[in-house]
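Hey, can you fold this one?
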Amino acid sequence: MINNYTITNNVLIGEGKGVYAISGYALTNSTINNNDITVIGGNISKIALNSSDAIKSGNAAIKLISGSTGNSISDNLINSTNANGMDIESSSNSINDNVILISSNNDIDVGSYGSSSIAGIYASEDGLTDLNINNNDILLSGNADYNYGMSIMAPYPATKNITSIKITDNSILANVNSNYIAGIYTNAVNSEISNNFIDINSNNFVYGIATDPFYPSTGGNNIITYNNVTGEGIDARLIEVTSSSNDTIAYNNLKAKGNAVYGVAGYALDDSVIDHNNMTLIGGNGSSAQSGGDMIPSGNAAVILIGNSTNSYITNNTFNTNQKIYINQTGATNLTVYNNTNKSASLKTFLICNNMVEVYGAGENFTGKLVDEFGDPIVGQHVALNLTRLSDGASKIYGVTTDLAGEFQLEINLFVGNYTASASYNGFSKDNVTYLPSSSSVASIQVVTKIDNRTGTILSNKNFTEVYGAGQNFTGTLSDINGKSIIGQHVALNLTRLSDGASKIYWVTTDTAGGYQLEINLFAGDYTCLSSY
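Sure. Predicted structure:
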């Protein structure tokens, strides 16, 4: 056992088919903080595993196992490719204020089941307890088959529940080119998941927060409150709870867009409260969604309770959705449902205009973009552009139309001067969704005369006196108007004898200091030198 150890202020870089930057076995009451860690992992199935090491081969920036308790992991910067940010297999640890950047590519380990997975924070131990995860920033990208902001899961087979996990005030962002993303996925009971910001999307399945106790156990007594969860994919479930009771799901702000969308989904969810949640849900017809083995089939509803869910409360929620079913309770009994507000779906829109500088007569385009609150382009919409000349306040409105990327262009053929541009959009309704009006911030347009990018130069010759036959050098320097030396340039030196006006031109080249030299072998007399470049 290693006790009261400090690992701090290190720059750690590692690459291999199996890689750990920091690994601890029975590390207790220690501090791992302020480290800058970069790791690139690979496929550990392609290496000979070291069976003699207590810490088995794997891929993670930080790995703690076997009784590594009471540790503080904080303020680390982790940049991890094909490796978990953290892999924690011990109880009673704190993970706070870390920045974890996760990416994956085709070199990631595919595991024994033939699929790849990666997590910002992975924690797993039979009976894992007392884990505090607070105020971490996690960003995921890449193409792993399964992506997790946090995966707090019991190992298989497990005999004891994961308990007393506190996940609060974290930010999880993900845009993955893969089948599956989960913001927070856990087996935990008697735990809290609160005040987290989650914005994730994938090509198919999206789970914002999911609690799923290990079979055949049941979960319960979890608090899921004050989270902001946004998800976009074919099948999006913002909060999903299975086989649980006495849970509180309240005061969450939930937004999703997909072919099949649930705000809160419960299977065998009993004696629980779903209260004061605000949901904006844009669903489709569900035709391209797949169940993916989930006990809750794909579909569209603000709240769905099935699997003989019973005795739960659905109260004081606000549902903004384009679907006809707000609460699907066909698989539930004895529910208390009251004081929920049902609204047709409306989405905010955002106009973005780009500043522009154009040389007069170039005929370039002023550009911008129209998107909804999910950041998706709004296609084929009319946008009004108001261009104003600042010198006299004259203005004119031009109409443009957004293309397939939601972008618009206006060719600028204005006189030299400074202009402002602002865009406005009146909104529209389609497929039971109202896209609200919006206006842009003011952008600038500068039309300028053709730019002369030449820089002034200075030639400086030094007065020179020598004794006949000494063979000394006449010298000078070439620099720009800012005093920067100009190197490797040819300079013409026109030497003229004052007694009879005879002259000759000599060529010299500037050195690395911008200086030049010419050896003088002239008869006694007075001469002038005129240099040119």
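The CA atoms of residues 25 and 52 lie 13 Å apart. Let me know if you want another pass with a different chain boundary.
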